[in-house]
Specification:
- The protein is elongated.
- The longest helix has about 30 residues.
- By secondary structure, it is an all-alpha fold.
- The chain has one domain: Alpha-lytic protease prodomain-like.
- It starts with a helix and ends in a 9-residue tail after the last helix.
- α3 packs antiparallel against α4 and α3 packs parallel to α7.
- The protein has 7 helices and no strands.
- About 40% of the residues are buried.
Length: about 210
Amino acid sequence: MTSIAAERSQGTPPQATRAIRLEQATIAYNVLEGLVAVGAGLAAGLVSLVGFGVDSGIEVAAATVVLVRLLAEYRGGEVSEAKERRALRLIALTFFALAAYVVFEGTRNLLTGDTPDTSTVGVVLLGLSVLVMPLLARLKRQAGGRLGSRLVLADAAETRLCAWLSVSTFIGLGAFTLFGWTWLDSAAGFVIALFAVREGREAWEGELVEGED
């Protein structure tokens, strides 16, 4: 496996360029996904869709940490482990805040009987994400393997987790749209909370950066 120092001395290798572009694509897609999901979720009063959109924003932050690290490693910059760890812990706190929000709102809606509106935009967006996120995860896993980067492999696992989140939210929101079962929105929100706590714990422990091979 070629060392980072050796690769750097020869310029940015094609595998590193591919990984960098995939991280940039992850950031671009999740920015758009997050804005649309939060806007549509707030308009319809859908806790799960808002939570999904906020999670997209957190994915942007995590991918940015990875991208900055890759650019520093392969383009001669300096890597600050202390700054990176602080950024990851801030991301972790955001995950925990997201979990608290969706649990609170989901529970409140169940107790008060509030009925959200359906969201065709949300269903279409989630359907697209079910296709895009697994593809991004697979491409990043391949790039990380060829590059020999634990960092990229760990971020691929993060994207794969977000892909499963897309699937669970899509099923919940789709079923709510079809059958009108209001509790499905809260149930999907609780699933998001579980994902958020897991991702937050991993970010706090630094596993996004220190992931295993």
